[in-house]
Every structure is written in C-alpha cells, then in structure tokens.
Amino acid sequence: MTPGQVLLFAVGGLANAAYLFIVAAGLSLVFGALRVINMAHGSLYMIAAFVTVVIGNQLGAGLGFWGGMLVAVAVAGAIGGVVEVLVLRRVYGREHLVQLLGTYAVSLIIAGAVRIVFGANYRTIVSPIPGHLNLGGYSYASYSLFMIAAAIAIGGGVWAMLYRTNLGRNIRAAVADPDLLNATGVNVTRLYTTVFMIGAALAGLGGSIVAPSQAVGSSIDTDVLVLAFAISVIGGLGSIVGSAVGALIVGMVISFGLVIPATNPFALAFVFIIMTAVLIVRPRGFFGLPDS
Amino acid sequence: MVLALFLFVALIPPLAGLNENLNPDASSRFQIFLGTSALVLALWAISYNLMLGYTGMVSFAHAAYYGVGAYTVALIFKRYHLPILLGLAAAPLAAAAVGVVTGLVAQRAVRLYFSLLTLAISQLLFSLAFTWYDFTGGDNGIAVTVPDQLSDYTTLYYFTAAVVGVCLLLMFLLVRSPFGAALLSIRENRQRAAAIGINVKAYELAIYTIASLFAGMAGGLFILYQQQAYPEMLYWTANAQPVVVTLLGGTTTFLGPAIGAFIYVVLDNAVSKQFPYQFDIILGAIVLGVVLAVPGGISDAPTVFLRLRERFHRGEQAEAPPAESAGEAIRMFDVRKALATDAIQAEEVHPGQTLLQIEHLSRRFGGLRAVEDVSLEVKQGDRHAIIGPNGAGKSTLFNLITGQLKPTSGTVKFDGRDITGKAPHVIARTGIGRAFQITTIFPKLTVRQNLQFAMLAHAGYTVRPFGLANRIFSAEAQELAEAVGLGAWTDLPAGQLSHGDQRAIEIAISLALGSKLVLLDEPTAGMSAYETDKAMELVRRLATERHLTLLFCEHDMSVVFSTARTVTVMHQGRVLTEGTPEQIRHNPDVQKVYLGELEQEELGA
Fold first, then answer.
1. pLDDT by residue (tens digit) across B372-407?
2. Rg (chain A; Cα; Å)
3. Tens digits of per-residue pLDDT, B197-210?
4. 8 Å CB contact of B237 and A266
5. What is the ipTM of this complex?
6. Which residues of B touch A110 (CB under 8 A)?
7. CA-CA distances (angstroms) from residue A22 to A70, A130, A198, B120, B545?
8. Residue B169 belongs to what H/E stretch?
9. Stated pTM of the model
10. Cα-trace Rg, chain B
C-alpha cells in the first residue's frame, strides 16, 4: 500500500469511527449511570435514520437534511423517554437478565413497528455536503470529513456536559453511588430519565448522521448494535474515552479489513476476534466499570 | 413427571392430524410438519433453559450452536456423501466442541460482559458461515435432499419424536441429579455456591457445553424437515426464538419451554404468514409482559401463579409464616438450655493446637491499606473474636481468609496447609465455613435442600449427572435442621424464614460442610436483642457439641464478651492488641480506640 492509500483508508476508518463513537457513547453513558445494557439502542438509531431520510427528502435536498436530523434526534430522545418510564423504571436493580430481556423486547417491538411504518425497502438521502476534497491523487468525500469533525465536537460536548455542568456532576455521582445521590436530595428518578433520553438522542444523532452515507434499511438496528457492543466491550462499558478508543479500533479494522484482499471476507470477523482478545486480557475492556 | 414427558411426546401426533397415510391431504401433512418443527423447537428451547433457567446465564450464542449442528449434518451428508445418520450423530458433538471452546473464552468475562461476548462469538461463527463460500456455500447455505426412508412426514415425525424424547429424558435426569443441584445452587446464589465448595465456573462451562450439545442435536434434526442450512440460523437475532419460547413456557419448570414451543409454532403459523411485522411486535410484547409482570425475576413466575391461586382459594389452607412460631418453639428450648449455657461459659479454656495461622497478611486497594501486616493465630476449639471500629479491616481480613480477596502479601495457613490466595470453593473444601455479614443462603430452595446441597457438595457428589438429588442426604439434612432448631420448617423455602432463622441455616450449612473452623461476620447484625441471645446461644451450643472453632467479628460488645475466649482488636488495618476478654476490657488503648465510637459502658468500663 502506498502512503496515499493508507491515508485514504485511515480517513475511511475515521469516518466509520465517527458515527460508531456517537452511537457507542450513548450506550456507554446509559450503562454508566443506569447499569443497564440497552438492547434497543440500535432501534433508536434505526428510527432516527428513517425519520431523517423521510423528513429530509420531504423538506427538499440540502437544507432538508438538517431539518430531518433535528426531528429525528427529538423523536429518538422522546421514544427513549417513553421507554425509560414504561419499561426501564421497572427493572432497575433487578437481575441483568431481566434488563437484557426487557430492552430486547422493546427492540423487537420497534423493529416490527419500523417495518410497518417505513416498509422493507432501502431508502437513501442525498448528502447535504456534496463534493470531494482532492489530496495526493485521492479524493475524500467532504461529508466523511464532516462526520469526523462532528464526532469530535459531539465527544467534546458530551465531555463538557459530564464535567462542566450540574447535570454532568449528578450523572457522575450516580455512576459512583446512586443511593447516596438520592439522599442528597437529587431526584434520581428524573435524572435517570434524562440520562436515558440523552443516550437515546445520541443513538438518534448517530443514525441521522450516517443516513447520507449508507442505505437505510430495516436491519441496520442489529448491525449497529452489534458493533456498538463490540466497541463497548473493547473500550469498556461506562467510559466515554473507552467508547472513543473502541470506535477507533473497530472503525479502522473495518476500513482496512475490507481493503486487504486476504482478509476482505473476514473484516467483520476481525472485529470480534479483537473483541474476544481484549476481553481475555482485560475482562472489562480497556476502561470498563464493574457491572453492579 | 417422567410419565408426563412420554405422554407429551406420544399425544402430539393425534393433535397434529396423525398420519399422512390415513389422511393424505396436504393440510394434514402440513400439520405433521408443524408438529415436527415444534418438537425440534422444544428441544432447542429446553436446552437453552438449561442455562437460563438453571444457572441464570444469558447467552446470545445458542443459535450458533443450533446452526453448527445443522451445518454438520449438511456438510457430512452433502459434501462428504456419508450417511445422514452419521451426520446426525456428529451434529451434537460438533456443537459441543464449538461450545466448550467458545464457552471457555466467554467465561473470561463476567455476567453482562459474558452475554456480550457470547454475542460476539455468535457473530464470528455467523460471519464464518456467511463468508466461507467454498466450505459453507456462503449466503446460499447448503440444501440437503433427505434420503427416501426419512422423507415421508409421518416417519420423520416419529423419528424426530424419538430423538427429542431421548434428549429430553437425558436432560430431565440431569437437572434432577446432584449435578443439577449444583446448577440450581449457582442460579440461586453464586457466592454461597462457591462457599459450599462448588467450582462455579467449571459447572457453568459444563452446562454451557451440554446445552450447546443438545442445541446441536436440535439443529441436526432441523435439517431433516427444512432440508436447508443457511447462515442466518447463526445470526444473533435468531436467539429470539429460544428466548421467547422459554419465556412463554416459563423457565422454572422443565417442560415449560416445550409448551412454549407449541404455542409459538401455532402462533407463528397463524400470524407470521399474513402479518410478519406484527409478529415481531407480538413476540416483543410477550417478552415484555413476562419480564414486567413477574417481579423479582423470571424464575418467580410460579410464585406469582401460586399467589394468584392462593388469592383464589383464600382461607382454604392455613399459611405458615414461620418467623413467630419458630421463635416460640425456640423460646421454650432456650429456657431448658439456659443452665447448660452457663455451664459452658464456666468451662475452662484448653487452647489446642494452632488451626489457622495468618502471617504478615496485607491487602492494599490503591493507596488504602485495608489490612496491613496482620499476624494472627486461631487455636483449635477457641472462640476467637475480632473487634475494632468501622474500617478497621475486619471484613477484608475475613475475605482474605476465605478467598473472596487475594492478599497483596503474607500467608494464610489452615490445618497445616497453605491456602493463601486459593479460590473460595477450594478453601471451603479444606474445612472453613463462613456466615456472611449479609445472610447468604439459597432463598428459594427449602431449608432441607439448603443443607442437602451443602452435603452433596461436601461429599463431592455434585459431579454425578445421575440419581435424584432430593433423595440423597435427606435424613441427614433433617437431623441437622433439628439440631439448629429448624426441624419443623425443613420443607419451607429458606427465604421465608425470619432473619435469625436464616442465620441459623447459614451456620447449619457450615456444619453440613463438616467445617472445622466457622467464620461468622457480625453474626447478630440487624437482630433484635431477643434474636441475638437466641442466635449466640445456638452458636455456643453447636461449638461445644461439635467441637468447632469459631472466628467471628462483632460490634455488639455484650456478644463478644459473652462468647469469646480470645479477642483480637484491629485498628486501621493493623492488630492493636490481643488477649482474653478480661484483658481487653481493661486495656486503655482499646478504650481510646473505641472512644467516640462506642459508649464507655458498652465496653463494660
């Protein structure tokens, strides 16, 4: 491979890492504060992707996408709120088994609903930032570069939220000791709803941002969920830094795995081999929190 | 139960339209086909429940083992042109081989991460099946034309029924065996299971492998009537089927998932053809309903059912809330024993040989020195108390002795053997029993089972996959229960007993393990004064009768001074001093440490 090719695939890897990070950060945030693995996380991502495409195309090319994104993130956040109040609130503190199965049930329901509402066909939306950037004989899609920048900004935003706001302070306190936080007068019930809605909105943002670069179909929920799990396991659940590291590893492996002929068919398998290897060495991933 | 099993298999064909020779129209053939698929699904789901229901493991790789079974048959028959029955025999073995390897890997992770890792493994196997065109046929899968003798639906049905029947019988015998008892104890309480000497990880790996073996068998049978192996069988979402079926039928009864399988097949046939998307929603609603409507976990479903039935038959049966009445029974017992207790206390102390020897033991958590250079000897037959203010390192010390924590440095010797840093189940087997600070018993098992299972583990019987666990040591457990004053409540779920009586069960479990040394971590925490007296009376009596050595930590000084013969005082992770209760009572350093923590008069000053 020439250095130019390496750069090309590295940028491709970064673009993968970008949307995967946004999704995984939401999953990880929810796990950190609520100690719940949200099996319906991919479903929220899928809903947002569909909403972005449908609303975006309705509003017209270009600017329409941004309108679609706004609606999509709001919809994902709102559905997250409903799920938290109706389902999760009743399974906190119970066995992981119950929480896994409860959110799994939600994912089945959403999957069915999405197929009824949006049908089984793939849908697409034109990139709101068209054009390419030429560098060293290779062209880079402007939208990929936008995704990378957006992920960095969102990562910074989540960090600022966690470490520079009251809400973030409470979330971090909830991660450490929810009972104590409750005793200090913070409404932990409402905090949990808020955190879950933020997590859902991040899933939605990921689904929305990825819509122009991939075809949107009714199986993207499980595809992204599996990758988000791989990232969380590699980076460690409950850590935003872990999500970033995990997303970079997974994004790069997919990008370079596809390009090396010998590994091409097994690019995805590679992700899971790495995930397995990491867990064998570090059973809670690189930056993981204990699970109870 | 076994009879029901055979009836269950034998009764299906009439229900499903019987025989294509008698009734050769297409619809009855279809019914027979559905019956076959329900049988296979039942086998698959029951094998899933071996993990979910009997050990509480959530695996997302079970579909992969089912798929491995199917591919094994397809490859052996289609690619290597060997007899299909050979393929069928190889299917469970291949699945078990993949299962044991992947299970070993998945076990590196705990609980949630275990579930995620099984998911990754499942996806790995899927992508192998999906992308390895030359071997697996990639996304086309492998089509199989079943040989003539198995191609007619009725024959195939009876063949499948026979195989499934044998498999169910084997699994049924397994869960009722001492091996099954070990699984049940893990499901109920992992920590307690390890403390009675069960190697939790080894048993989990064993059942994971056995479950994958039967899943492979189910996958192999699937090929016979579907005549196709395809990669989606291994995709992790395919696990929805066994999960939903298991939850539908219930996880706590052996045949529950089989009933779930029949409901599922009927429902699937009625709904999914016309409304495929609505079917997903229905499945989701079922899982959600089971999860939310059954508080306290999936395994509580029968409890909810019983509660409903009780409400229905209110007043017919006298309920037995044992806490109070048990107390009454023991009160009488106490009065008779009062003099004896005094006699024990007056008894002279004969310090024996050193039973437990701790040397320079330290444990640090980051910068915190929880236990620092502690050396301690516990003599045979002694009642040794460890006291000290909160944070003195008492619980950490206990955890170091029983293997819950590994020491940073130092050694622990018990009965002449070095047990430093050994796993809890290994230490339990050397003869150290433990009652935890928070009572840990098997709450849903009966008092008798609590003791029986401990005896089974102690005798090393839990490796046996045959025999009826409930019949072994039944009388011995009853005797032991009577010795700790619980003889009348042996058939009640242990969790229903009062706090004090649960403590008594915990101590009895230590006795069932033949422990020479019993560690009691705050034995009277959370007890009323009356319960405290009762509990300590029991402890003293058992220690004397059974020549036990006690090591306990306790905040209640009246308990310490009425029971202990030796007292060690810990402060900030170190041993401050050691002596007889009388010496400790008058030690000015000890009073200084406790000042501000406890009132003077509690020290008896």
1. 899 999 998 899 999 888 888 888 899 999 888 899
2. 19
3. 889 899 999 999 99
4. no
5. 0.85
6. 284
7. 16, 22, 11, 20, 65
8. helix B153-176
9. 0.80
10. 29
